[in-house]
Amino acid sequence: MNSTTATQPPLDFSSLDGVGVMICGHGSRNRLACDEFAQLAHGLRRRLPEVPVEHGFLEFARPILRDGLDRLRQRGVSRVLAVPAMLFAAGHAKNDIPSVLNTYAAETGLQIQYGRELGVDRKMIQAAGARVREALDAADAAGEPVPLSDTLLVVVGRGSSDPDANSNVTKVMRMLVEGFGFGWGETVYSGVTFPLVEPGLRHVVRLGFRRIVVFPYFLFSGVLVSRIYQHTDLVAGDHPEVQFLKAGYLNDHPLVIDTFRERLEEAIRGDTAMNCSLCKYRAQVLGFEPEVGAPQHSHHHHVEGLGEPCTLCEQECTGACQPDGVPLPAGHHHSPYPHAEHPLGPLTLRRAG
């Protein structure tokens, strides 16, 4: 967390002339996920009634990012604070969204300041803890309580081809495990990297804990959260001796909205501090050396606003975006994940059907 924002008083946004806010999301084919994202943006509008707030998506849904930026300009905004609605900084936050914003700024002359992702933050950990606590309290109220020391926490991350982002999910897991005093903790992922949810859960049941809490560390619902719960049910069905709890995702928890406001204040003050020391595009990160200095561009232009997925983009979840020599469509660019063949990883999704 940036210590500067923790010690300074809240910023008075009413004193800012011509400033608007743009919340930048990924987008989903799941209507509920898009509705939840819009609800989060509405929650931020309530917190900042003096500032125009718009939102937009990178792909698979409307409004797209350019639509939201157009609306801000129509409302007289000359300076935009753009914040990625991303838990961690991976390819979407580092490349795809900045590429769209930079292109728009160059075309229109609109001033756009880009804030940082939500990140590993005290308030985000508190929001996550609240979701885990809700699941524990509901289970204890419905049956015999299980000691925390006999409970294992599994935190599920989105999964990325960026090891820095993946490692941050593990840090969140450890903060929760030590905060609650769970007997053990593990991290699994819904796609791209390893271990995936099902093989990961099949490993942790061998540890012998009476209760396993599965917590999707996601902002919104969607295909991936549904898949996490489905795989949890599949493993639970094979192990009736273990109590599985499915915790809720973050959604528009008040502390999540508080964190968004902090990111906006950082952008205004010029305190935005990105973590570049482990960024695979800037440093020689073990195993990802070929990606140092890769150009910043988006590979999502061909699916902006689409309700149907690009087949190759969907196959990113398996780590194989260019199967059998099929040429990539125009505008689709990103490096292949080097561990796509890992036995606990991406390609198992395809093999599972």
Shape: globular
Number of discrete helical segments: 11
What's the number of domains? 2
* Low-pLDDT residue intervals, each spanning 5 or more residues: 1-5, 308-332
Q: What's the gyration radius in Å?
A: 20 Å
CATH fold-type name of the largest domain: Rossmann fold
Write the CATH architecture name of the largest domain. Answer: 3-Layer(aba) Sandwich
The helical percent reads 25-40%
H/E series? HEHEHEHEHEHEHEHEHHH
Termini distance? 40 Å
Q: How confident is the prediction overall: mean pLDDT?
A: 84
Taking strands numbered 1, 2, ... along the chain, how are they ordered across the largest sheet? 2-1-3-4
Residue fraction in strands? 5-15%
CATH class of the largest domain: Alpha Beta
Largest sheet entry: 4 strands, parallel
Fold topology:
Layout (H helix, E strand, L loop, with lengths): L2 H5 L11 E7 L5 H17 L5 E5 L7 H10 L4 E6 L6 H18 L2 E4 L7 H21 L8 E7 L5 H18 L3 E6 L7 H8 L6 E6 L6 H16 L4 E4 L7 H16 L41 H4 L32 H5 L2
Parallel strand pairs: 1-2, 1-3, 3-4, 5-6, 5-7, 7-8
Helix pairs in contact: 2-9, 5-9, 7-8
